[in-house]
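User: Please predict the structure of the protein below. I'd like the answer in structure-token form so I can feed it into my own downstream comparison script.

Assistant: Understood. Taking the following sequence of 252 residues as input:
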Amino acid sequence: MEVSLTGKAILVTGAARGVGAAVAAEAAASGAEALVLTDIDPIPGTFPCAVEAVTADLATPEGPPAIIAAALARFGRIDGLVNAAGLTSRGSFADADVAFWNRMFSVNARAPFFLMAGAIADMTARKAPGSIVNIQSMNAHAGAPDLGVYSATKGALQTLTKNAAHAYMADGIRVNGINLGWVDTETERHLHEVTLGKGEGWMAAQGAKLPLGRFVSVEDAARTVVWLLSDASTPMTGVSMDLEQAVTGAPC
């Protein structure tokens, strides 16, 4: 079956950069009729389909319902949702405080929950099938020591993915997740090469040591997301796919 989003209205969070931006581009290239693209920053670029750009802060309770309302006001429906936005800030048992915990969970777990709730409410009201894809993390399996809180948020999102898939399977609403490993994004490059002072070219050198000779790219992730959004992945639901250059549980 062809991977196509022809005729579909797709909502993508975190669309200003990284995986979210790549998903938006791939969705448009795959025939999406309409895109609702949201981020806390302006959405760059142009697209060959109708686009509603929504600036919103997912850390606030008002963010998700405002995004859903904007999508329905412009296009009258939501056929697919991609929760790609997320915070990757470091925080461990040794240094995380309550404010950090609350902000991480508000963006990485609470916002996706209420965006899913809004999309599902529209789909069920129209008695229409739909597809939701959540960008999770390999850290949901346990996580690096300095990513304790982040790992917990992605573990929560993984459980919500399965819960929603089970709850709405009979309605034709499929909900899947992708546990991304280390992906080569502008944010990751800046973090390691500039913020952490590892120097220009450090990411490329690390990627050269991996089986593919590079990190997983945002384009790799976007192709998988669009496949899960499309009818080509039917009847898959409730699945959390590991997208990484390693097999979980295999000996090191």
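That's the full token string. The chain has a mean pLDDT of 96.
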